[in-house]
């Protein structure tokens, strides 16, 4: 309480005290009965004039406090709150006439994990407030009562619904207008302040958004791993707060275009028509399960001629939808690191969108995606198989060199490189094509856990492809594995082990490399047990198709013919000079051996 408020309250109390002393009626004296019995000291009621004064004191005190705190805006703090809604085929947005701000958003196309309505935010979980800086200090517009006017209007994009909130006192007017178009997840907002004169200290509005994100998925831990704040600078750079830290914050002093509170499958975002001046961002992972994460943003919005425009996005993390909103908004979906994100953004997303037009079962779509990708990569698979077959055919020569130079590893490597050159065989010919296929395998590792297309889609025994298929629930928890058994993950593991066994026969692998092929599937079994069933199913189908392709190639690739080609290359390259690469490699080996002898 400042000095002016204290002085006003003291004067008000003094007036009440003087009135009660000189003008209030005096109660009648109490009469004692002569019997000696004690009579209760009951006071007669005050006069009606005095009683009315007592009843009016709370309102008078409230008015005084409002006058001290809000000045000329005090009349706007008195009123009765009511609800107003905007609705289209995508969502229902509820506002309150107190504050003229969003109090609830329901997405109509989706359900929460427990099959209840998906309430993206409500007044218990989210607080959005706007503050203006006046000569009385920061004033929250959420303290003011507004008159609401609803209707529809025609625009270039079609007919839109709108609600216009107006609050006026004296010459000062505040207007907050919201519009919602059919088929849109965007709520456009225009804020207009007029007639304030010298009441405003600066031309900025402070937006405070505190969102305690509601739980929409059954697996809250997986949801937390995919929830954070994304933001996009006006310079065109996307950034975000850490996904893994329990507490993270950042003060952004550069102009921003948008800020997104991104969950695993849904995003609540605020987008500037022009730009935000700056923002303070904070996210906290709570210890309880009442919310997924607690996200906060304090944003500075500049006013131009007393007006500012922005939009709210409340909708799914569908890559195509987000990309159509504004520049960089699709970054709210994690498509993976740079070297694999291009696969998801330009191939997988478009492939899924195409297949969705003809198939409604996502298990079938996943199978078709595998077949299309494997068909596209088949030339690489064939080349890889032939390369491994060549290495298998020349294995006797390699073994002979190993035995001959078993005491001289450097000489052994040099002779092997010479042999490869003579026979026209490259030791990496079987690995390189496989390496080129890796981006597709890694891309799926990011696509399926973040794909809203898989959400609540069932296939076979999996009730939801976006989470693990708990085929068997265990009465105990296995460290690094969980308290359930995912059947799709088991099938993937078995298929990978079978493929490894088949592959080892093709390559005649020995030593650590042979055993590594069996250890990796076991490791992935532990990792993927709690990942989405769609991912394990994709890898399982991919393994089976690859296994089938190699079995088919084996029928048409004859080791005798490969041997004949190798012998022909041996004769052809008998007098062939060493390539520059071979020469440099041999020189490097000799230098390494010389350094070793010196030591």
UniProtKB/TrEMBL annotation:
Domain of life the protein comes from: Bacteria
Keyword Ligase listed: no
Principal subcellular localisation of the protein: membrane
Key words of the record: Cell membrane, Chaperone, Membrane, Protein transport, Transmembrane, Transmembrane helix, Transport
GO term, biological process aspect, one: protein transport
Membrane topology per record: Multi-pass membrane protein
Gene Ontology MF terms: membrane insertase activity
Annotated PANTHER family: CYTOCHROME C OXIDASE ASSEMBLY PROTEIN COX18, MITOCHONDRIAL (PTHR12428:SF65), OXA1 (PTHR12428)
Name this protein carries in UniProt: Membrane protein insertase YidC
């Amino acid at each position: 309480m400042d000095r002016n408020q204290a002085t006003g309250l003291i004067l008000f109390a003094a007036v009440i005290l003087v009135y009660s002393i000189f003008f209030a009626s005096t109660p009648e004296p109490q009469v004692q009965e002569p019997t000696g019995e004690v009579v209760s000291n009951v006071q007669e009621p005050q006069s009606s004039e005095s009683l009315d004064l007592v009843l009016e004191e709370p309102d008078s005190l409230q008015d005084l406090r409002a006058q001290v705190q809000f000045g000329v805006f005090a009349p706007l703090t008195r009123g009765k709150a009511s609800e107003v809604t905007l609705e289209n085929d995508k969502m229902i947005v509820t506002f309150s006439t107190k504050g003229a701000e969003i109090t609830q958003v329901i997405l109509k196309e989706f359900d929460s994990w427990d099959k209840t309505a998906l309430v993206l935010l409500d007044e218990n979980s989210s607080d959005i407030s706007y503050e203006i800086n006046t000569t009385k200090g920061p004033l929250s517009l959420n303290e003011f009562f507004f008159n609401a006017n609803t209707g529809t209007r025609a625009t270039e994009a079609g007919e839109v619904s709108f609600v216009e909130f107006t609050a006026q006192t004296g010459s000062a007017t505040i207007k907050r207008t919201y519009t919602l178009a059919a088929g849109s997840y965007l709520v456009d907002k225009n804020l207009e302040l007029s007639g304030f004169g010298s009441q405003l200290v600066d031309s900025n509005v402070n937006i405070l958004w505190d969102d305690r994100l509601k739980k929409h998925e059954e697996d809250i831990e997986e949801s937390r791993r995919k929830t954070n704040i994304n933001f996009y600078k006006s310079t065109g750079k996307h950034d975000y707060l850490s996904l893994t830290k329990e507490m993270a914050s950042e003060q952004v002093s550069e102009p921003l275009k948008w800020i997104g509170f991104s969950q695993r499958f849904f995003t609540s975002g605020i987008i500037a028509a022009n730009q935000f001046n700056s923002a303070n961002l904070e996210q906290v992972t709570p210890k309880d399960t009442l919310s997924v994460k607690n996200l906060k943003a304090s944003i500075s919005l500049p006013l131009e001629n007393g007006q500012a425009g922005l939009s709210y996005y409340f909708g799914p993390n569908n890559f195509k939808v987000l990309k159509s909103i504004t520049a960089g908004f699709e970054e709210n979906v994690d498509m993976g690191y740079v070297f694999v994100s291009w696969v998801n953004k330009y191939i997988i997303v478009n492939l899924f969108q195409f297949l969705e037009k003809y198939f409604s079962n996502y298990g079938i779509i996943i199978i078709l995606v595998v077949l299309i990708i494997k068909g596209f990569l088949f030339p690489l698979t064939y080349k890889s198989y032939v390369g491994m077959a060549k290495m298998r055919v020349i294995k006797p020569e390699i073994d002979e060199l190993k035995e001959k130079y078993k005491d001289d590893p450097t000489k052994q490597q040099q002779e092997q490189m010479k042999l490869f050159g003579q026979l026209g065989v490259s030791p990496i010919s079987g690995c390189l094509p496989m390496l080129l296929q890796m981006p597709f395998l890694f891309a799926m590792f990011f696509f399926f856990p973040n794909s809203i297309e898989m959400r609540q889609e069932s296939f076979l025994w999996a009730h939801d492809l976006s989470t693990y298929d708990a085929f068997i629930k265990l009465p105990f928890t296995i460290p690094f594995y969980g308290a359930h058994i995912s059947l799709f993950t088991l099938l993937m593991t078995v298929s990978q082990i079978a493929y490894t066994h088949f592959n080892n026969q093709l390559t005649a692998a020995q030593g650590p490399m042979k055993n590594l092929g069996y250890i990796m599937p076991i490791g992935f079994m532990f990792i993927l047990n709690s990942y989405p069933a769609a991912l394990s199913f994709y890898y399982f189908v991919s393994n089976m198709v690859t296994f089938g392709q190699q079995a088919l190639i084996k029928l048409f690739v004859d080791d005798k013919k490969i041997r004949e080609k190798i012998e022909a290359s041996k004769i052809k390259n008998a007098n062939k000079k060493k390539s520059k690469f071979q020469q440099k490699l041999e020189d490097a080996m000799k230098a390494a051996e010389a350094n070793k002898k010196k030591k």
